[in-house]
Amino acid sequence: MTKKGRLRGFSHFLRRTINRWNCWPAGILPLPARPASRKFAFDRGTPIDRFLIERFLEAHSADIHGRVLEVAERGYTTRYGGNRVTQSDVLHAVAGNPEATIVGDLATGEGLPWGVYDCLVLTQTLHVIYDIHAVVKNLHRMLKPGGIALVTIPGISQISRYDADRWGDFWRMTPDSVKRLFAEAFRAEDVAVKSYGNIRMAAAYLYGLAAEEIPPSALTEIDRDYPLIICVRVMK
After folding, report:
1. Which positions of the chain have pLDDT values less than 70?
2. In angstroms, what CA-CA distances link 197 with 72, 77, 166, 202?
3. Strands 66-71, 143-154: parallel, antiparallel or unpaired by DSSP?
């Protein structure tokens, strides 16, 4: 399909969304005046960033084994680690999460165990912690030699209002900045960075559409100039 044809197809797609959302057009293109969802489309289906995160974790599911730590809940550990996981820990920053086995601070290191994990699963977490350099150093300290961290970070995203109102929402990053950040604590040759996203996914995601609501072809194309999420596999 030509560029003109792709643009026409996307324009038709946006026009259909206007009718669905009952929004006024804005500007030259028929862009909706407000998002369909302010909850990352959790209320509409599968959030697009979560679709991509799960694609990344599935590709590296063999790394999720032994003693594994995940932030906030153990859903991905269970889903992708299965019976390869011998111990599943859940980290939360404050007390009160019934799933948490560890209450600790990734920035200060308070409450964290050192040198014990075969795998760390850290999805969409770094951007809500201000001192990300300290976090990456502490991830290195938590891993066993040969241990692996699977990390995802937003590149293009709305503000997470839930996090912003509680502890802050500080960062949006690029593949280059993520590579340099992790190379401060790990060997550069052990840091593998991959971005997922394209213009259609980015636009749909910012407007709060779910993965089920956009053309399947939009979910497979990768355009490095539109990194919706940035994924890191790093080994100690």
Report:
1. 1-31
2. 25, 24, 28, 7
3. unpaired
Compute the distance between CA of residue 196 and CA of residue 152 in angstroms, rounded to an integer. 10
> Does residue 197 share a domain with residue 81?
yes
Strand segments (E) across 95-142: 102-103, 117-123
Residue 24 belongs to what domain range?
A: 1-34
Same domain, 13 and 113: no
What does the pLDDT read at residue 87?
Answer: 98
Q: How far is CA 179 from CA 35, 144, 153, 174, 196, in A?
A: 32, 21, 12, 9, 15
Name the CA radius of gyration of the chain, rounded: 19
- Looking at residue 176, its pLDDT comes to 97
Phi-psi region for residue 94, left (φ > 0), alpha (ψ -120 to 50) or beta? Answer: beta
CB 225 within 8 A of CB 133: no
Long-range contacts of 173-176 (CB under 8 A, 24+ apart): 173/126, 173/127, 173/230, 174/227, 174/230, 175/224, 175/227, 175/230
Structure tokens given for 19: 């009718």
Tell whether 144 and 166 lie within a shared domain: yes
**Which backbone phi and psi does 97 adopt, to 5 degrees?**
-85, 115
pLDDT at 18: 46
